[in-house]
Design brief:
Shape: globular
Number of helices: 2
Radius of gyration: 13 Å
Number of strands: 3
Largest sheet: 3 strands, antiparallel
Strand content: 15-25%
Distance between the termini: 45 Å
Helix content: 10-25%
Order of helices and strands: HEEHE
Strand order of the largest sheet: 2-1-3
Structural class: alpha+beta
């Protein structure tokens, strides 16, 4: 099975992507989930795996502030 390379994913850093269920294709991307959903609706794409590609050169902090 052909996997998506790190180099390919790096093109989508800090974006949301929709992957095929076998995780071999990227159907669409967007800076926000709303932006991605609009693209998917326009292209009539259903199904797949929603994934956020974090920036590869930065750490992602899960600390919440009040």
């Amino acid at each position: 099975m052909k996997q998506i390379s790190i180099q390919e994913l790096a093109k989508y850093a800090d974006k949301y992507i929709l992957l095929s269920e076998d995780r071999t294709k990227i159907f669409a991307s967007g800076k926000t989930i709303d932006q991605l959903e609009k693209k998917l609706e326009k292209a009539k794409i259903t199904g797949g795996i929603l994934h956020y590609v974090r920036p590869l050169d930065k750490a992602l902090s899960l600390i919440c502030h009040k």
